[in-house]
Design a protein that fits this description.
With about 190 residues, the chain is α/β, with parallel strands linked by helices. Helix content is about 30%, strand content about 25%. Strands 1, 2, 3, 4, 5, 6 and 7 form a 7-stranded mixed β-sheet that branches. The longest helix has 17 residues.
Length: about 190
């Protein structure tokens, strides 16, 4: 059975290797800007992951299991995307300092063999400790925050800021493995 990951994310690729030794990577050309945020983070990430999965699934000539995901960070009802620059990263990290935020991932699995589609959302609550200005600046200099929603990676240096989490650790990394395993069983 062919497995296709509809993502260029190295973190998602690394995590999927825990479930499958071999899979193909086909990057979706789905226009994320076409999805408008309606105030529900769960619905938003589900719609994004669904769009990516269906976009890749329709390009395939043969059968496959297509997996797509999208992850956002939400703080004070604001979506924190990848920072535009170092100043934006600093602003995000200062806003997260000493506070709770939520990480939402939408995951979609499409089985083109039997037509089954499963689309789910996962949320994890994350509490940051109080951050000093100098540690924020030092972290930004590593370059790690620049390609991550919310300007931090829990699996990297940014993990030192995390005081506690309530929910799936792998969701915060970008691919909730337990949820994905259950979804894959559901579409088979």
């Amino acid at each position: 059975m062919r497995i296709v990951l509809a993502s260029a994310s190295l973190r998602r690729q690394e995590l999927l290797k825990r479930l499958y030794n071999r899979f193909d990577i086909i990057i979706s050309s789905f226009d994320e800007e076409s999805v408008k945020y309606n105030g529900s983070p769960e619905e938003y990430v589900k719609e994004l992951s669904n769009g990516k999965a269906l976009d890749v699934a329709q390009t395939l000539d043969d059968g496959a299991i297509v997996i797509a995901a999208d992850t956002i960070v939400v703080h004070d009802n604001n979506i924190l995307l990848k920072p535009k620059d170092e100043n934006d990263a600093e602003k995000m990290l200062k806003s997260l300092s000493g506070d709770i935020h939520h990480v939402y991932s939408g995951v979609t699995v499409v089985n083109t063999y039997n037509g089954k589609i499963v689309n789910e959302a996962v949320v994890t609550e994350v509490k940051f400790s109080e951050l000093k200005d100098e540690e924020i600046k030092r972290y930004i200099k590593t370059g790690e925050p620049m390609d991550k929603a919310g300007a931090y990676g829990i699996q990297g240096y940014g993990g030192i800021f995390v005081e506690k989490i309530n929910g799936s650790y792998y969701n915060v990394v970008g691919l909730p493995l337990n949820k994905l395993k259950n979804m894959l069983e559901e579409v088979m």
